[in-house]
Amino acid sequence: MMPVHILANKGDVAERVLIVGDPGRAKLLSSLLQNPKLVNENRSFLVYTGKYNGVDISIATHGIGGPSAAIVLEELIMLGGRIFIRYGTTGALVPDINLGEYIIVAGASYNHGGVIYQYLKEDSCIAATPDFYILNSLVQNFQKEGLKFHIGNVFSSDAFYAEDEEFVKRWSSRGNIAVEMECATIFAIGRMKGVRTGAVLVVSDNLAKGGVWISKEELENSVMKGAKVILDTLSKL
After folding, report:
1. Contacts of 44 (CB under 8 A, 6+ apart)
2. Which long-range contacts does 220-226 make (Cβ < 8 Å, 24+ apart)?
3. From the centroid of its chain, how far is CA 137?
4. Among 1, 77, 85, 71, which Cα is nearest to 42's?
5. How far out from the chain centre does Cα 138 lie?
6. Helix 132-145 with 216-236: angle, nearest 10 deg
7. What is the per-residue pLDDT across 178-233, written as a single tens digit (0 to 9) for each?
8. Residue ranges of the chain with per-residue pLDDT less than 50
């Protein structure tokens, strides 16, 4: 089956792919590649392919939420992608995580049902966890660069505006340190399709501290610093 959303050809997408939700972020991060080429812009799922440390790497947009991420991941796999690191933003659920810091995701909780249920076709669940070697490499490289990071589980939400007063307490009490929207789907499909996945998130807000948001300038600064570490990691996997 050929992709119907990412209108690229086999060979246009590298085996190593950095995936982000925001097409603007994909465009920004493409500046870190050598000779980046825009290989898809259909439906604003921007995909760039270039080199980093002499290695072919693509930067692709997966959109917002599990269903969008599932479509893009499936189609990138069709086009030759085999190693994926999600790089996005997240809201912290515990007070000791500060804005602009990083979360290297060790696993993702999710509500039963939705896109993962449809893949499984039965009333069961799957461990939504990243590839250990990607996780380990990310930890080592973030340590080496001296960037402040946390390792832990996140909750992958399907509804950005559905938080109630008990939301932070409910999900943090279950061992989750942050909330985002795509990791569980990406990890689960990665397991089912036999590809390797990982994720790094930049803390854009902290719900445990009242939901104060990072400034655009501070966020971009953290995003660019972290992206270099992630691209370096991808180039060596």
Report:
1. 23, 61
2. 220/28, 221/100, 222/100, 222/101, 222/102, 223/25, 223/28, 223/29, 223/87, 224/28, 224/29, 224/32, 225/145, 225/147, 226/87, 226/102, 226/142, 226/147, 226/200, 226/202
3. 16
4. 71
5. 13
6. 120
7. 999 999 999 999 999 999 999 999 999 999 998 889 999 999 999 999 999 999 99
8. none
Calpha distance 172→231 (Å, rounded) = 30
| CA-to-CA dists, residue 14 to 55, 95, 215, angstroms | 9, 39, 33
Of the candidates 49, 13, 19, the one whose C-alpha atom is nearest the C-alpha of residue 199 is: 19
CA neighbor of 138 nearest in space, from 86, 95, 186: 86
SS (H, E, C) the chain: CCCCCCCCCCCCCCCEEEEECCHHHHHHHHCCCEEEEEEECHHHCCEEEEEECCEEEEEEECCCCHHHHHHHHHHHHHCCCCEEEEEEEEEECCCCCCCCCEEEEEEEEECCCHHHHHHHCCCCCCCCCCCHHHHHHHHHHHHHHCCCEEEEEEEECCCCCCCCCCHHHHHHCCCEEEEECCHHHHHHHHHHHCCEEEEEEEEEEEHHHCCEECCHHHHHHHHHHHHHHHHHHHHHC
Instruction: Give the global pTM.
Output: 0.97
pLDDT at 212: 87
